[in-house]
Amino acid sequence: MTRGSCLCGEVRFNIEGDFEHFFICHCSYCRKDSGSAHAANLFTHKSALTWLSGQDKVTDFLLKDSRHTKSFCSICGSAMPIVEADNDMCIVPAGCLDDEVPVKPEAHIFTASQAGWEKELATTKRFPELPE
Questions:
Q1: pTM value?
Q2: Maximum CA extent, the chain
């Protein structure tokens, strides 16, 4: 069992069982969704998802003329699991999990679309907290 929630705590859920895939996606849609260099998404069956509270607070945005969907808490904006209506898939943003992610990413995908500045991240300074 893996627990998850949004930033404000209104939405809570459990994922039962193992995740099938863990991809780091660099497509332009995921970069826009996350406001970052990529999205980190875990994939499982939609039957693995149990909403514990706040399901009515989850809003879905489907990008016109695409299959790209973003689910988010309507109060705090945190990314939430996406349940695809036309198949058995549930996509879980790794950042919304409260428990340690139980698997390692298996691949970076859509790297042809990655942000140019991302290539330098491995050599960028690191600080354990906000620098002074």
A1: 0.89
A2: 49
